[in-house]
Design goal:
- It is a single chain.
- The protein has 377 residues and is of the alpha/beta class.
- The chain has one domain (3-169, 261-370): FAD/NAD(P)-binding domain (3-Layer(bba) Sandwich).
- It has helices spanning 10-22, 46-54, 58-63, 87-93, 102-113, 158-163, 240-247, 278-281, 290-305, 310-338, 344-356, 359-370; strands at 3-6, 26-29, 41-44, 66-68, 70-74, 80-85, 97-101, 118-119, 124-129, 134-138, 143-146, 148-151, 169-182, 193-198, 202-208, 213-221, 255-262, 269-270, 273-275.
- Strands 6-5-14-15-16-13-17 form a 7-stranded mixed sheet, sandwiched between helices. A 6-stranded mixed sheet has the order 8-2-1-12-19-18. A 3-stranded antiparallel sheet has the order 3-7-4.
- Helix 1 runs parallel beside helix 9 (290-305).
- The two termini are 22 Å apart.
- The mean pLDDT is 94.
């Protein structure tokens, strides 16, 4: 009854931990030849941290990261448009939003799963359905048998491409540069704050990951730049700290990629196979919920497996998760467009509305993201 998990990313590893808790046997097949430190930063909102609390991991993750208690949206000069104090939710849920380096999070999760459950260098090439099982065929010529498969292999999922109806990628028309810089002087007041500044067809965000590192990202509309463009001229309208942070990161350590999501699909499970995380509902990063929604998938699937057969859990899981995951995808897409306005009048009106929006309304909207389904029948 072993389940094959395709992909050892954050979603795949968290799913493995949820299966462990449910007493379900599994094996993870990962395309990379080694689990080496990669990536930049990530913010784990409280819905994700509540899952890790349930899995007994929250304290260790928090120790390897940095507590975030305030989220700011600002003008390019860091003049505030809105500010959300997360203290209300911290008291309610007894966890904190945590910024952490992706490599540190990945290491913590992989160690908890156990290397003996992870098979490296297995890039999936084909899936052949046999009478009772699936044969997984890999590019290195090897194969494996599995009765059940969980596709946790990201937005370009091979599992989804091979077995599920054709899906559609959506290009948001934005390039995103990411990096991690050494701690910058003058940012001490932002120790426990995440800040995103909206410019004209550009935006910049940063958050401290620990006492040594600052994670940053910068986005530009595609009709104004290419992946290899010099982004420094775009920083003239921003606070001087922005250029300082970016310059503190060697260019060879920058990551650049287009912002792309997956147009919401309705089918997440088929013939003892289910999709999770970005393979099922890849989102643009504008709500900071991409990985968080994969983590919620793992949580719900794990809870279902504690009460139901694998077949029934695979059937019920999309019914419980689809509404929220798709809402996140759609809302994030809209915010991505709103944040990149270029018409000065439209920008002025948007900023006026943001500054005038009552705190209780922002809290209500945020609460919808942070709520975690805790009853699974």
């Amino acid at each position: 009854m072993e389940i094959a998990i395709i992909g050892a990313g954050i979603g795949g590893l968290t799913t493995a931990l949820a299966l462990k808790k449910a007493g379900i046997s599994f094996k993870i097949y990962e395309s990379a030849d080694e689990l080496k430190p990669v990536g930049a930063g990530i913010i784990l909102a409280m819905n994700a941290m509540r899952v890790y609390s349930d899995l007994g991991m929250a304290d260790k993750i928090a120790r390897n990261g940095n507590r975030i208690s305030i989220i700011n949206l600002t003008k390019p000069n860091f003049g505030k448009l809105s500010s959300n104090d997360l203290g209300f939710f911290e008291k309610q849920y007894n966890v904190s939003t945590t910024a952490i380096h992706r490599a540190d999070l990945h290491k913590v999760l992989a160690e908890k799963v156990g290397q003996e459950y992870i098979v490296l260098g297995k890039r999936l090439q084909n899936i052949i359905r046999t009478e009772n099982n699936h044969r997984l065929e890999f590019e290195d010529g090897t194969s494996a048998e599995a009765q059940y498969i969980i596709g946790a292999d990201g937005i370009r999922s091979v599992v989804r491409t091979l077995l599920f109806p054709e899906s559609e990628y959506r290009d948001a028309g934005q390039w995103c540069w990411r990096g991690v810089a050494d701690t910058i002087e003058g940012l001490e007041t932002y120790q426990h704050e995440a800040t995103e500044a909206w410019g004209k067809g550009t935006r910049f965000g940063f958050v401290r990951l620990n006492d040594r590192q600052v994670y940053w990202y910068f986005l530009v509309d595609k009709d104004r730049a290419e992946a290899d463009s010099d982004i420094m001229p775009f920083l003239k309208e921003y606070h001087p700290s922005v250029a300082q942070i970016i310059k503190a990161t060697p260019k060879e350590n920058w990551f650049v990629s287009p912002i792309v999501d997956l147009k919401p699909i309705q089918q997440w499970n088929l013939n003892n196979v289910c999709l999770m995380g970005d393979a099922a509902h890849a989102t643009t990063p504008n709500l900071g919920q991409g990985a968080c929604q994969a983590i919620e998938d793992a949580y719900i699937l794990g809870k279902l497996l504690q009460k139901h057969s694998i077949n029934e859990a695979f059937r019920l899981y999309p019914l419980l998760r689809k509404q929220k995951a798709h809402a996140v995808v759609n809302m994030s897409w809209k915010i991505g467009k709103l944040s990149h306005l270029r018409n000065p009048l439209a920008i002025a009106f948007r900023n006026f509305v943001m500054k005038a929006t009552p705190q209780y309304f922002n809290r209500k909207q945020l609460g919808r993201l942070l709520v975690l389904q805790n009853k699974v029948d």
